[in-house]
Amino acid sequence: MKITSIAIYAIRLPLKQPFVISYHTYKDMPSIIVKVETDEGLIGYGEAVPDEHVTGETWEGTYQVIKHTLGPAILGINPMEIEKVHEIMDKLIYQAPAAKAAIDIACYDLIGKKLQVPVYQLIGGRYHVQFPITHVLSIGEPEKMATEALEQVSKGYTSFKIKVGRDVNGDVARIKAVADSVKDKAVIRVDVNQGWQTAAATLKGIKALETVDIDWLEQPVRADDIDGMAFIRSHSTVSLMIDEGLKGARELKEIIQKNACDRINIKLMKCGGILPAVKLAYQAELAGIECQVGSMVESSIASSAGFHVSFSKKNITSVELTGPLKFTKDIGDLHYDIPHISLKDQPGLGVNIDEEILKELTVFEDVLKES
Questions:
Q1: How confident is the model at residue 100 (pLDDT cuts 50, 70, 90)?
Q2: According to its UniProt record, which residues of this chain constitute the active site (predicted)?
Protein backbone atom coordinates (compact mmCIF):
# COMPACT_ATOMS: atom_id res chain seq x y z
CA MET A 1 0.00 0.00 0.00
CA LYS A 2 1.28 3.47 -0.85
CA ILE A 3 -0.03 7.03 -0.74
CA THR A 4 -1.01 8.29 -4.19
CA SER A 5 -2.79 11.60 -3.51
CA ILE A 6 -3.39 14.15 -0.79
CA ALA A 7 -6.24 16.66 -0.91
CA ILE A 8 -5.80 19.66 1.41
CA TYR A 9 -8.72 21.78 2.59
CA ALA A 10 -8.44 25.02 4.56
CA ILE A 11 -11.75 25.30 6.40
CA ARG A 12 -13.36 27.43 9.09
CA LEU A 13 -15.64 25.64 11.55
CA PRO A 14 -18.58 27.81 12.70
CA LEU A 15 -19.00 28.11 16.47
CA LYS A 16 -22.32 28.30 18.27
CA GLN A 17 -20.90 31.17 20.31
CA PRO A 18 -17.47 32.85 20.54
CA PHE A 19 -14.86 30.82 22.42
CA VAL A 20 -13.06 33.15 24.83
CA ILE A 21 -9.78 32.31 26.56
CA SER A 22 -7.03 34.41 28.12
CA TYR A 23 -5.13 35.25 24.95
CA HIS A 24 -7.79 35.28 22.21
CA THR A 25 -11.46 35.29 21.26
CA TYR A 26 -12.36 32.81 18.51
CA LYS A 27 -15.40 33.60 16.37
CA ASP A 28 -14.81 30.41 14.36
CA MET A 29 -12.12 27.74 14.34
CA PRO A 30 -9.64 27.62 11.45
CA SER A 31 -8.64 24.06 10.56
CA ILE A 32 -6.72 22.20 7.84
CA ILE A 33 -8.18 18.87 6.67
CA VAL A 34 -6.18 16.33 4.67
CA LYS A 35 -7.74 13.53 2.65
CA VAL A 36 -5.11 10.90 1.90
CA GLU A 37 -5.75 8.20 -0.73
CA THR A 38 -3.80 5.05 -1.47
CA ASP A 39 -3.28 2.80 -4.48
CA GLU A 40 -5.67 0.31 -2.87
CA GLY A 41 -8.55 2.79 -2.88
CA LEU A 42 -8.49 3.43 0.87
CA ILE A 43 -9.07 6.97 2.16
CA GLY A 44 -7.79 8.37 5.45
CA TYR A 45 -8.58 11.76 6.98
CA GLY A 46 -6.38 13.93 9.18
CA GLU A 47 -6.66 17.37 10.71
CA ALA A 48 -4.42 20.23 11.85
CA VAL A 49 -5.70 22.97 14.16
CA PRO A 50 -2.68 25.25 14.64
CA ASP A 51 -2.47 28.06 17.18
CA GLU A 52 0.07 30.87 17.01
CA HIS A 53 0.11 31.10 20.81
CA VAL A 54 0.57 27.37 21.45
CA THR A 55 2.06 25.46 18.51
CA GLY A 56 3.72 28.49 16.91
CA GLU A 57 1.90 27.82 13.63
CA THR A 58 -0.65 29.80 11.66
CA TRP A 59 -3.60 28.48 9.66
CA GLU A 60 -2.17 29.76 6.39
CA GLY A 61 1.36 28.62 7.19
CA THR A 62 0.26 25.12 8.16
CA TYR A 63 -1.56 24.79 4.84
CA GLN A 64 1.60 25.79 2.95
CA VAL A 65 3.82 23.44 5.00
CA ILE A 66 1.58 20.50 4.14
CA LYS A 67 1.25 21.55 0.50
CA HIS A 68 4.91 22.26 -0.23
CA THR A 69 6.93 20.30 2.34
CA LEU A 70 5.23 17.39 4.13
CA GLY A 71 2.69 16.33 1.53
CA PRO A 72 5.05 15.86 -1.43
CA ALA A 73 7.51 13.95 0.78
CA ILE A 74 5.03 11.24 1.78
CA LEU A 75 3.58 10.59 -1.68
CA GLY A 76 4.57 7.05 -2.57
CA ILE A 77 5.20 6.11 1.09
CA ASN A 78 3.43 3.22 2.84
CA PRO A 79 1.29 4.83 5.58
CA MET A 80 1.64 1.69 7.72
CA GLU A 81 5.32 2.56 8.22
CA ILE A 82 4.35 5.27 10.70
CA GLU A 83 7.77 5.61 12.37
CA LYS A 84 9.32 6.20 8.95
CA VAL A 85 6.63 8.75 8.11
CA HIS A 86 7.54 10.74 11.24
CA GLU A 87 11.25 10.42 10.51
CA ILE A 88 10.71 11.84 7.03
CA MET A 89 8.67 14.75 8.40
CA ASP A 90 11.11 15.52 11.23
CA LYS A 91 14.06 15.63 8.84
CA LEU A 92 12.24 18.07 6.59
CA ILE A 93 11.06 20.63 9.14
CA TYR A 94 11.66 21.46 12.79
CA GLN A 95 8.57 21.43 15.00
CA ALA A 96 5.39 22.27 12.97
CA PRO A 97 3.49 19.78 15.18
CA ALA A 98 -0.06 20.52 13.99
CA ALA A 99 0.94 20.06 10.35
CA LYS A 100 2.59 16.75 11.21
CA ALA A 101 -0.44 15.71 13.27
CA ALA A 102 -2.68 15.99 10.21
CA ILE A 103 -0.49 13.52 8.28
CA ASP A 104 -0.09 11.21 11.30
CA ILE A 105 -3.85 11.04 11.96
CA ALA A 106 -4.64 10.30 8.31
CA CYS A 107 -2.05 7.51 8.27
CA TYR A 108 -3.55 5.89 11.37
CA ASP A 109 -7.02 6.15 9.83
CA LEU A 110 -5.65 4.32 6.78
CA ILE A 111 -3.86 1.66 8.85
CA GLY A 112 -7.02 0.92 10.82
CA LYS A 113 -9.08 0.66 7.64
CA LYS A 114 -6.48 -1.56 6.00
CA LEU A 115 -6.44 -3.96 8.98
CA GLN A 116 -10.18 -3.52 9.69
CA VAL A 117 -9.66 -2.49 13.32
CA PRO A 118 -10.23 0.73 15.30
CA VAL A 119 -7.17 2.91 15.81
CA TYR A 120 -7.09 2.18 19.55
CA GLN A 121 -6.36 -1.49 18.74
CA LEU A 122 -3.18 -0.36 16.99
CA ILE A 123 -1.80 1.51 20.01
CA GLY A 124 -2.48 -0.76 22.98
CA GLY A 125 -6.06 -1.93 22.73
CA ARG A 126 -9.08 -0.62 24.57
CA TYR A 127 -8.48 0.03 28.28
CA HIS A 128 -11.29 2.45 29.20
CA VAL A 129 -14.97 1.75 28.53
CA GLN A 130 -16.11 5.37 28.50
CA PHE A 131 -15.10 8.84 29.67
CA PRO A 132 -17.19 11.60 31.25
CA ILE A 133 -17.13 14.78 29.20
CA THR A 134 -16.00 18.02 30.82
CA HIS A 135 -17.95 21.15 29.89
CA VAL A 136 -15.69 24.12 29.15
CA LEU A 137 -16.82 27.57 30.29
CA SER A 138 -15.43 30.47 28.23
CA ILE A 139 -14.35 33.63 30.03
CA GLY A 140 -17.32 35.87 30.82
CA GLU A 141 -18.99 37.74 33.62
CA PRO A 142 -19.16 35.69 36.85
CA GLU A 143 -22.96 35.56 36.89
CA LYS A 144 -23.17 34.45 33.26
CA MET A 145 -20.60 31.69 33.77
CA ALA A 146 -22.40 30.50 36.92
CA THR A 147 -25.74 30.39 35.12
CA GLU A 148 -24.24 28.39 32.23
CA ALA A 149 -22.68 25.91 34.66
CA LEU A 150 -25.97 25.37 36.43
CA GLU A 151 -27.73 24.79 33.11
CA GLN A 152 -25.13 22.19 32.11
CA VAL A 153 -25.48 20.37 35.45
CA SER A 154 -29.13 19.83 34.58
CA LYS A 155 -27.96 18.10 31.37
CA GLY A 156 -25.83 15.66 33.35
CA TYR A 157 -22.37 17.23 33.30
CA THR A 158 -20.34 16.43 36.42
CA SER A 159 -17.15 18.37 35.72
CA PHE A 160 -16.35 21.87 34.49
CA LYS A 161 -13.23 23.56 33.17
CA ILE A 162 -13.38 27.25 33.96
CA LYS A 163 -11.42 29.38 31.50
CA VAL A 164 -9.80 32.37 33.22
CA GLY A 165 -6.60 34.39 32.87
CA ARG A 166 -7.63 38.02 32.36
CA ASP A 167 -6.86 39.30 35.88
CA VAL A 168 -6.40 37.47 39.18
CA ASN A 169 -9.08 39.27 41.20
CA GLY A 170 -11.68 39.03 38.46
CA ASP A 171 -10.79 35.40 37.87
CA VAL A 172 -11.22 34.59 41.56
CA ALA A 173 -14.72 36.06 41.36
CA ARG A 174 -15.51 33.96 38.28
CA ILE A 175 -14.29 30.75 39.90
CA LYS A 176 -16.14 31.36 43.15
CA ALA A 177 -19.36 32.17 41.30
CA VAL A 178 -19.25 28.91 39.34
CA ALA A 179 -18.26 26.87 42.41
CA ASP A 180 -21.14 28.36 44.42
CA SER A 181 -23.64 27.67 41.65
CA VAL A 182 -22.82 23.96 41.23
CA LYS A 183 -21.79 23.32 44.86
CA ASP A 184 -21.33 19.55 45.32
CA LYS A 185 -22.91 18.63 41.98
CA ALA A 186 -19.72 18.82 39.91
CA VAL A 187 -15.94 19.07 40.15
CA ILE A 188 -14.20 22.31 39.26
CA ARG A 189 -11.06 22.58 37.14
CA VAL A 190 -9.45 25.92 36.38
CA ASP A 191 -7.50 26.69 33.20
CA VAL A 192 -5.55 29.95 33.21
CA ASN A 193 -3.95 29.51 29.76
CA GLN A 194 -0.78 31.28 31.01
CA GLY A 195 -2.82 34.34 31.96
CA TRP A 196 -1.49 34.85 35.50
CA GLN A 197 2.02 34.82 34.02
CA THR A 198 4.09 34.58 37.21
CA ALA A 199 4.39 32.29 40.22
CA ALA A 200 3.76 35.24 42.56
CA ALA A 201 0.45 36.14 40.92
CA THR A 202 -0.56 32.48 40.87
CA LEU A 203 0.12 32.01 44.59
CA LYS A 204 -1.98 35.12 45.25
CA GLY A 205 -4.86 33.55 43.31
CA ILE A 206 -4.45 30.19 45.05
CA LYS A 207 -4.57 31.87 48.48
CA ALA A 208 -7.77 33.72 47.54
CA LEU A 209 -9.32 30.40 46.49
CA GLU A 210 -8.49 28.44 49.65
CA THR A 211 -12.18 27.85 50.35
CA VAL A 212 -12.86 26.46 46.85
CA ASP A 213 -12.30 22.77 46.16
CA ILE A 214 -10.36 22.85 42.88
CA ASP A 215 -9.70 19.53 41.17
CA TRP A 216 -6.66 21.01 39.45
CA LEU A 217 -5.19 24.31 38.27
CA GLU A 218 -3.92 24.31 34.68
CA GLN A 219 -1.03 26.31 33.22
CA PRO A 220 -1.21 29.51 35.30
CA VAL A 221 2.24 30.78 34.21
CA ARG A 222 3.95 31.34 30.88
CA ALA A 223 4.52 28.20 28.83
CA ASP A 224 8.31 28.20 29.10
CA ASP A 225 8.36 28.84 32.86
CA ILE A 226 8.83 25.27 34.07
CA ASP A 227 10.74 26.61 37.09
CA GLY A 228 7.72 28.74 37.98
CA MET A 229 5.44 25.69 37.91
CA ALA A 230 7.89 23.81 40.14
CA PHE A 231 7.97 26.75 42.58
CA ILE A 232 4.16 26.91 42.76
CA ARG A 233 3.95 23.17 43.33
CA SER A 234 6.42 23.35 46.22
CA HIS A 235 4.53 26.24 47.84
CA SER A 236 0.92 25.06 47.57
CA THR A 237 -1.23 21.97 47.85
CA VAL A 238 -3.28 22.59 44.70
CA SER A 239 -2.88 19.90 42.04
CA LEU A 240 -1.15 21.41 38.99
CA MET A 241 -1.49 20.53 35.32
CA ILE A 242 0.89 21.65 32.58
CA ASP A 243 -0.57 22.31 29.12
CA GLU A 244 1.14 24.89 26.92
CA GLY A 245 4.42 24.16 28.70
CA LEU A 246 4.42 20.61 27.31
CA LYS A 247 4.89 19.96 23.62
CA GLY A 248 7.14 16.93 23.35
CA ALA A 249 9.52 14.55 25.08
CA ARG A 250 12.16 17.20 25.75
CA GLU A 251 9.81 19.39 27.79
CA LEU A 252 8.38 16.39 29.61
CA LYS A 253 11.88 15.27 30.60
CA GLU A 254 12.49 18.69 32.20
CA ILE A 255 9.06 18.67 33.85
CA ILE A 256 9.77 15.28 35.41
CA GLN A 257 13.26 16.29 36.54
CA LYS A 258 11.93 19.42 38.26
CA ASN A 259 8.76 17.83 39.74
CA ALA A 260 6.87 20.66 38.09
CA CYS A 261 3.35 19.21 37.97
CA ASP A 262 0.93 16.49 39.02
CA ARG A 263 -0.70 16.08 35.61
CA ILE A 264 0.02 16.85 31.98
CA ASN A 265 -2.33 17.80 29.17
CA ILE A 266 -1.37 15.96 25.98
CA LYS A 267 -2.68 17.49 22.76
CA LEU A 268 -2.12 15.88 19.39
CA MET A 269 -1.70 19.30 17.83
CA LYS A 270 1.13 20.19 20.23
CA CYS A 271 3.12 16.97 19.95
CA GLY A 272 2.60 15.97 16.31
CA GLY A 273 -0.16 13.36 16.28
CA ILE A 274 -1.13 9.96 17.63
CA LEU A 275 2.29 8.30 17.70
CA PRO A 276 4.02 11.12 19.64
CA ALA A 277 1.02 11.33 22.02
CA VAL A 278 1.31 7.63 22.84
CA LYS A 279 5.02 8.05 23.50
CA LEU A 280 4.32 10.96 25.87
CA ALA A 281 1.75 8.90 27.77
CA TYR A 282 4.29 6.11 28.29
CA GLN A 283 6.97 8.59 29.36
CA ALA A 284 4.56 10.13 31.88
CA GLU A 285 3.54 6.72 33.17
CA LEU A 286 7.15 5.89 34.00
CA ALA A 287 7.26 9.04 36.14
CA GLY A 288 3.92 8.37 37.84
CA ILE A 289 2.19 11.34 36.19
CA GLU A 290 -1.48 11.21 35.20
CA CYS A 291 -2.48 12.49 31.77
CA GLN A 292 -5.36 14.22 30.07
CA VAL A 293 -5.89 14.38 26.33
CA GLY A 294 -6.98 17.88 25.49
CA SER A 295 -8.29 19.73 22.46
CA MET A 296 -7.56 22.75 20.32
CA VAL A 297 -11.33 22.81 19.57
CA GLU A 298 -11.07 20.36 16.70
CA SER A 299 -13.62 18.73 14.40
CA SER A 300 -14.75 15.12 14.64
CA ILE A 301 -11.56 13.99 12.88
CA ALA A 302 -8.89 15.13 15.35
CA SER A 303 -11.28 14.78 18.30
CA SER A 304 -11.81 11.13 17.41
CA ALA A 305 -8.04 10.64 17.10
CA GLY A 306 -7.60 12.05 20.60
CA PHE A 307 -10.27 9.73 21.97
CA HIS A 308 -8.56 6.68 20.47
CA VAL A 309 -5.36 7.62 22.32
CA SER A 310 -7.30 8.25 25.53
CA PHE A 311 -9.19 4.97 25.51
CA SER A 312 -5.99 2.95 25.00
CA LYS A 313 -3.91 4.21 27.95
CA LYS A 314 -4.57 3.52 31.64
CA ASN A 315 -2.74 6.65 32.89
CA ILE A 316 -4.92 8.89 30.74
CA THR A 317 -7.63 9.57 33.30
CA SER A 318 -9.51 12.49 31.76
CA VAL A 319 -10.36 13.88 28.35
CA GLU A 320 -11.37 17.28 27.06
CA LEU A 321 -12.31 16.84 23.44
CA THR A 322 -15.52 18.79 23.06
CA GLY A 323 -14.89 20.66 19.81
CA PRO A 324 -17.73 19.00 17.86
CA LEU A 325 -20.19 20.05 20.58
CA LYS A 326 -19.27 23.70 20.01
CA PHE A 327 -19.91 23.83 16.26
CA THR A 328 -23.10 24.63 14.38
CA LYS A 329 -21.72 22.46 11.56
CA ASP A 330 -19.13 19.70 11.70
CA ILE A 331 -17.58 17.73 8.87
CA GLY A 332 -17.80 14.41 10.73
CA ASP A 333 -20.23 12.42 12.85
CA LEU A 334 -18.41 11.74 16.12
CA HIS A 335 -21.20 10.86 18.54
CA TYR A 336 -21.49 11.99 22.16
CA ASP A 337 -23.81 10.43 24.72
CA ILE A 338 -23.91 13.48 26.95
CA PRO A 339 -22.31 13.58 29.43
CA HIS A 340 -20.16 10.66 28.21
CA ILE A 341 -18.30 9.57 25.10
CA SER A 342 -18.19 5.96 23.96
CA LEU A 343 -16.21 5.10 20.83
CA LYS A 344 -17.57 2.85 18.12
CA ASP A 345 -15.75 -0.27 16.97
CA GLN A 346 -15.53 0.84 13.35
CA PRO A 347 -12.19 0.57 11.47
CA GLY A 348 -9.79 3.50 11.57
CA LEU A 349 -11.02 6.63 13.31
CA GLY A 350 -14.62 5.45 12.99
CA VAL A 351 -15.76 8.83 11.64
CA ASN A 352 -17.80 9.33 8.48
CA ILE A 353 -17.06 12.57 6.60
CA ASP A 354 -19.79 14.71 5.04
CA GLU A 355 -18.12 15.81 1.81
CA GLU A 356 -20.81 18.42 1.11
CA ILE A 357 -20.24 20.20 4.42
CA LEU A 358 -16.48 19.91 3.91
CA LYS A 359 -16.80 21.68 0.57
CA GLU A 360 -19.17 24.27 2.05
CA LEU A 361 -16.71 25.20 4.82
CA THR A 362 -13.64 25.19 2.55
CA VAL A 363 -11.96 28.55 1.92
CA PHE A 364 -9.18 27.23 -0.35
CA GLU A 365 -7.92 23.79 -1.39
CA ASP A 366 -5.30 21.86 -3.36
CA VAL A 367 -4.62 18.30 -4.45
CA LEU A 368 -1.19 16.66 -4.55
CA LYS A 369 -0.73 13.58 -6.72
CA GLU A 370 2.09 11.10 -7.14
CA SER A 371 3.91 11.85 -10.40
A1: very high
A2: 163, 267
